[in-house]
TrEMBL record:
Keywords: Cytoplasm, Pyridoxine biosynthesis, Transferase. It is an enzyme of class 2 (transferase). This is Pyridoxine 5'-phosphate synthase. Its main location: cytoplasm. Catalyzes the complicated ring closure reaction between the two acyclic compounds 1-deoxy-D-xylulose-5-phosphate (DXP) and 3-amino-2-oxopropyl phosphate (1-amino-acetone-3-phosphate or AAP) to form pyridoxine 5'-phosphate (PNP) and inorganic phosphate. One of its GO terms (biological process) is pyridoxine biosynthetic process. It is found in: Cytoplasm. 1-deoxy-D-xylulose 5-phosphate binds at D8, H9, R44, H49, T99. 3-amino-2-oxopropyl phosphate binds at N6, R17, G191, G212, F213. GO terms for molecular function: pyridoxine 5'-phosphate synthase activity. Gene3D superfamilies: Aldolase class I. Pfam families: PdxJ. HAMAP family: PdxJ.
Length: 236
């Protein structure tokens, strides 16, 4: 199982003082040196953390696989077509949310998504749809011929009681199986940390976990390279 590291929160810290450091690009290089299999960043419409120039510089890192998270808007599609990341993960976006709150409603937005997915894939960019673990969302993702889904693990990460956690795990497992069955590849992420990662890492069929906040928080104390190394170890 691979590990994608989301470096948005390095930029969050930089933007807190409108400075030019800490640099998310340097963090990405350290993350790769620590064993990350790819770099993930979310270019939000309000540019609250990652900026356009960050994505351009991240794209220029040699041999670094870049996954650009973005909303399904014409502005973002135009930007992605210019930058050509390896992957685009389409996420829902609300201005006031602290972080991405839920999965994309693929069923409701099928018409808009169909065109966007086609355009990106025609230009050699693999598309992943960030969805809640729901059957109808998986089925529609397959109809829209996305290459990947990323299962939103927030409900699992937030589950307090053991039975709730187990129910979420079972849901994620079943959705993974269904997605593979209909020809999708499967990633997962959101809210994963050093304590809750093991059970998710046991689910067969998930290719990659995308993790940001917990690794960046750990990196404050041990450095990015070590924080990534520890997460890789946990996954293994
Ligand atoms: N995957 C997606 C699609 C996300 O939007 C985020 C949050 O930016 C993550 C993974 C990482 O979540 P976290 O920062 O909670 O690890």
């Amino acid at each position: 199982m691979k590990l994608g590291i989301n470096i948005d929160h390095i930029a969050t810290l930089r933007q807190a003082r409108l400075e030019n450091f800490p640099d998310p690009v340097l963090a990405a290089i350290e993350a790769l040196e620590g064993g990350a299999d790819g770099i993930v960043c979310h270019l939000r419409e309000d540019r609250r953390h990652i900026h356009d120039y960050d994505v351009k510089k991240l794209r220029a890192i040699k041999n670094a696989r870049l996954d650009l998270e973005m909303a399904a808007t014409p502005e973002m599609v135009k930007f992605a077509l210019k930058i050509k990341p390896d992957y685009v993960t389409i996420v829902p976006e609300k201005r006031k949310e602290i972080t991405t709150e839920g999965g994309l409603d693929v069923v409701k937005n099928r018409k808009k998504l169909k065109d966007i997915i086609q355009k990106l894939q025609d230009n050699g960019i693999s598309v992943s749809l960030f969805i809640d673990p729901e059957l109808k969302q998986v089925e529609e993702s397959a109809v829209l011929t996305a290459h990947f889904i990323e299962i939103h693990t927030g409900a699992y990460a937030n589950a307090k009681a053991e039975n709730q956690k187990l129910a979420q795990l079972s849901k994620i497992q079943k959705i993974t199986e269904k997605a593979l069955w209909v020809g999708l590849r499967v990633n997962a992420g959101h809210g994963l940390d050093y304590n809750n990662i093991s059970d998710i890492a046991r689910i067969e069929g998930i290719e990659e976990l995308n993790i940001g906040f917990s690794v960046v928080a750990r990196a404050l104390f041990v450095g990015m390279k070590q924080a990534v190394k520890e997460m890789k170890e946990k996954i293994r």
